[in-house]
């Protein structure tokens, strides 16, 4: 009778741990599939960078303070200004106004050229990103374990470089975090593998009543990997979003964290810790 009760308890523990392991794998599968292709589930991204209003340049400051040597304009704009100044035979005030207008028109033309080559927004997943062009279709990069979203490189990939129009932006702040990003990818992959092994061992325990110690070890390792990866990715994209907002929000760029993806990742943490707790407590109770 006592043996039967103990056997039922083992089955209940094994079944619960099995269910938790399956839940972890489902959550991680959604994390992996996010932004991996145009058909990926909508809303599964860590970060969205909206470029609809970019670049919004607040009149470029040249309407308030104009100086041909110090104005924040490109070489083409400065040549246009100098051409206007040399051809106008009027008062200095009128000449400055005309030159300012010419510089503004030149820069606005550059802005239009830049906007025509940029997508409406980017969404960033674990190991790839997607961009939305003017139409409804999206283009996604191939998933890669060496993936890192570098916004400065993405913006400067357009024929008209952002640094030519906005030379005062510190683009090192929006260059991404390559080492952290790659570490997170590998921790999630290892967490997925160890969770799969946990699932196999939980099934063995359920049917053969063997392998509790090894199962507890893999559960604990899986929890450590998934928890660390989720914590790092949360902090990483939180800091990255803050940097984008402080650097580019005034120019029309919006950075938004993806609530669905972070919820999914933290659910994986919850189920993984639950699985580890069940087995560690069960092993400890069996040994005392």
TrEMBL record:
It comes from the Eukaryota. The chain crosses the membrane at residues 12-33, 185-202, 214-240, 265-285. GO terms for cellular component: cell cortex of cell tip; plasma membrane. Keywords: Membrane, Transmembrane, Transmembrane helix. Signal peptide: none annotated. The keyword Transmembrane applies. Pfam families: SUR7. One of its GO terms (biological process) is fungal-type cell wall organization. This is Actin cortical patch SUR7/pH-response regulator PalI.
